[in-house]
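Quick one, tokens below. Sequence please?
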């Protein structure tokens, strides 16, 4: 059952994510809108589009969520493998998705501080480089 759902959700997500699917959906809505005068904009006419879109949306939520969950898990596994294989990488970063929100926030703050430190260092190096370039261009007086 899981394999059938996985295959179906993958195919549906791929099919509905294409431009052709959007054009088909837009065409169906246009046809529905154009038939309004024929049906005198009746309650049944409105119920058709409301019911159809509700059912499609309800089902698509589950299919898309399944696809996103699989993609996220695959991405995490790939990142975990990269971390595991790189010498000097912090292996405690593997499986971060299992941490609590507070632990993730603490780690986020840690990386913000690292980023600020590296940004300051990069700016300092840039200024030194620019100063050296400026000194090379300035002719020296004798």
């Amino acid at each position: 059952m899981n394999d059938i759902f996985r295959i179906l959700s993958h195919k549906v997500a791929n099919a509905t994510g294409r431009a052709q699917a959007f054009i088909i959906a837009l065409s169906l809505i246009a046809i529905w809108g154009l038939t309004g005068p024929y049906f005198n904009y009746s309650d049944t006419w409105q119920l058709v589009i409301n019911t159809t879109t509700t059912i499609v949306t309800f089902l698509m939520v589950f299919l898309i969520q399944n696809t996103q969950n699989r993609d996220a898990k695959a991405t995490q596994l790939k990142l975990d493998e990269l971390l595991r294989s790189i010498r000097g990488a912090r292996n405690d970063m593997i499986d971060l998705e299992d941490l609590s929100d507070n632990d993730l926030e603490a780690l986020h703050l840690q990386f913000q501080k690292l980023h600020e430190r590296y940004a300051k260092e990069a700016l300092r190096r840039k200024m030194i480089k620019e100063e050296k370039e400026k000194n090379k261009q300035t002719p020296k007086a004798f």
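The chain is about 80% helix and 0% strand. The longest helix spans residues 43-85.
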